[in-house]
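User: I'm putting together a small comparison set for a docking exercise, and I want a reference complex before I start. The sequence is below, and the ligand is adenosine-5'-triphosphate. Could you produce the 3D structure with the ligand included, as structure tokens?
Assistant: Of course. I'll restate your input first, then give the structure tokens for the complex.
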Amino acid sequence: MIQLQQLTFQYGARSIVDRLDYTFAGNAIYGIIGPNGAGKSTLLQLIAGVRKPSSGQVLLEQRPIGELPRRQLAQRIAVLQQGGLPTLGFTVKEVVAMGRFPYQNWLGSERADATALIDEAIEATGLTHLANRTLEQLSGGERQRAALAKVFVQQPDILLLDEPTTYLDIGYQQMIMELVKQWQRKQQLLVIAVMHDLNIAALYCDQLLALRGGSIIAAGTAEQVLIPEHIASLYEVEALMVNHPQQNVPQLLLRLDLDKEN
Ligand SMILES: Nc1ncnc2c1ncn2[C@@H]1O[C@H](COP(=O)(O)OP(=O)(O)OP(=O)(O)O)[C@@H](O)[C@H]1O
């Protein structure tokens, strides 16, 4: 469980994250939505412990996140950054194995052999045939899957995803979200994902948190959050909501101003 208590982050006098109170309970996928510059990535960095709050706090099981030793934090929280992984000449297998760093001693070895876990993660992400290729020889979608395999082997109980499907075609978007969902359900993880695609967010997230100007303007299920009034207030667009015929969740269509076209 992650609790935000009056969480605030400022650049100079400007509050990027402004006195947030919110609880992320375990075993669910939370989506953070909101316009560009709303403070979504900053919030994720505060939860990851890579930024320090200006005031207020992030609690992990009642303890301020800044008090936890780095290594212990890395065993609990994994972060999938925007754009996947940098390409530095490492193979898929080498990069995935790096997910085990938090469990290794200073000689780079760990008590249990993690080879089977690494192979399993590579297989689950459909990368077995690419395991010995270097990252620069992969497509963007394959690289994103390698990044996901790396966080799988980190065996966290909290997974933070910063726009996990950006730059991916719809096939890869669905594959990444399906993998995350299957893994989340199997391991009962807490997943917190910054999402730009509201329709994907509605399909995969159990709860949504809508941010604008560093404040929460709505929180709840997709049905509660994705209503035209909120969409207008977040993005300044007029939305038409339709029901997904299979999943019974809202999906968004843009309303066109037909007068403007003539
Ligand atoms: N180093 C910095 N100094 C000053 N302001 C910054 C700095 N880094 C980010 N900001 C500002 O903080 C605000 C929030 O940025 P953040 O990246 O958290 O937004 P976001 O909601 O993730 O946006 P996006 O959807 O565009 O990724 C933005 O207005 C941004 O310009």
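The chain has ten helices and twelve strands. The longest strand covers residues 14-24.
User: Thanks, that's exactly what I needed.
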